[in-house]
Amino acid sequence: MLRLYNTLTRKLEPFETLKKGSVGLYTCGPTVYNYAHIGNLRTYIFEDILKRTLLYNGYKVKHVMNITDVGHLTSDADEGEDKMEKGAAREGKTAWDIAEFYTKAFLHDLKDLNILPADKHPRATDYIKEQIKLVATLEKKGFIYQTSDGVYFDTSKLSDYGKLAGLKKQSLKAGARIDMGEKKHITDFALWKFSSRVSPSAREGARGEREKRQMEWKSPWGVGFPGWHLECSAMSEKFLGQPFDIHCGGIDHIPVHHTNEIAQSEAAYGKPLANYWLHGEFLVIPGGDKMAKSSENFITLESLKKHDISPLAYRYFCLQTHYRKPLTFSWKALEAAQNGLNHLYAASASLAGSIVIPSEARADEVEDTPRSESLSQSITNQFLTHLNSDLDLPAALALFWQSLKNHSITQKQLFQFDEVLGLDIKSHLKKPIEKISAAAQKFVSERNTARAAKDWPKSDELRKKLEEMGYEIKDTKDGTEITNK
Ligand code: AMP
Ligand code: ZN
């Protein structure tokens, strides 16, 4: 039984789907005004592990991940510049070109990290009509009001506003330092922002100074663009219906973005938005600060490659820490992860592609290490138990390592487990040998006898013969390891 920690209830809960055997999964995607940093990518790796665990448990998964290409302002309080327009100004391109370029870069990163593609990657700008419809529904139900710069959601109209984050009403009063603008309550948020500010003294028709915007659309309330939270509510409903099963993101989304998605979706449709809410902890820099796009600590997958850290080594690094614990970045830790992954590939190759011939064994007694079926089954069960305990990947990985070291899993299991780990072990293996030839086995046996008699010239000669036959020979403490070259 799969159990997941639900942010909404703050409990570990048994996972039950709305529709038998299938899962609707929505994960908030990137704002494509710059490259994703490896902190962002940690969140997508966690979501990929969740999805692979669902698949491993036999569920069908319909996965939607949006692409935010409009409306995300530099401040979560609905102020500041649109991040897309800011990116365009920075690079002297159009906002549309910026979106196109960084969407491609993002999808490339996902591929490098062996993250399974979503079934849909809807872009916010392709679903403006649906977003306007959602605002119109909220208007009909009396949840909105208009200011000179946009249309806002009135959070005081929802008795359970803030339930996801456990926000307390009394702490939601406007503080002296917070600029409320014309908002009625500090938590109210923009559904639609106007391209031009309507003069408060002459609301009817008169327009203030017009901002230069590349991305804007007509709406019943005025020309402008959607608020950031709106796209996820509109597009999740369009592709997954409401409610759907699981909604994910990083922990920073809990108090604002997801809280507001819940508010507008539940107010509009009178039913829950999603049943399970899962959030990934941050990648932090030493000292505890989060890695952020706006700070100096902006490390991309490309920067890792320049330091000889492969994307899969970064994935491996992330798997070693539970997704609900902060993970501290350091180059040293990443180098250790790269080493660890290299060893894991080597150990897998030795399991899948080589035969250890014990020195005391006669060559004709050699066989692939027999494994007991009950031991194999018990390892498979333990692996699943770890996954299903709220995605305990560190424990699953430890079990994987231990089984690899003592050769207690089969090649088939190795590949099965990697369906969840996603480390692409298969393509890092040397070609497995089916069975070494009788002649080679004879040479190995003769070589062992020569070695026991300290007849090194003969031992070297036999090694050479084996190498000419296409085998690689390694003397280990357990015997002679023989692998296809
Ligand atoms: P953004 O592109 O800013 O919308 O963020 C994309 C995703 O990355 C969101 O799910 C964020 O919650 C997540 N995120 C942002 N910073 C970090 C970080 N330092 N560590 C882990 N996830 C992060
Ligand atoms: Zn979202």
Describe this entry's structure for a reader.
The chain is an alpha/beta fold. It is 40% helix and 16% strand. The strands form six sheets. Strands 4-3-11-12 form a four-stranded parallel β-sheet, with helices on both faces. It has a four-stranded antiparallel β-sheet with strand order 5-6-7-10. Helix 1 crosses helix 8 and helix 13 (438-452) packs antiparallel against helix 14 (456-468). The chain is elongated, with a radius of gyration of 28 Å. It starts with a strand and ends with a strand. The site of zinc ion has 4 residues, from helix 6.
| Ligands present | adenosine monophosphate, zinc ion
Q: Strand sequence of the main sheet, in spatial order?
A: 4-3-11-12
Largest beta sheet, briefly?
4 strands, parallel
Low-confidence stretches: 199-208, 360-370
Helix content: 40-55%
Strand content: 15-25%
Q: Helical stretch count?
A: 14
Q: Which outline best applies?
A: elongated
Terminal Cα span: 43 Å
Mean pLDDT, nearest integer?
Answer: 87
Radius of gyration: 28 Å
Give the strand tally.
Answer: 17
Structural class: alpha/beta
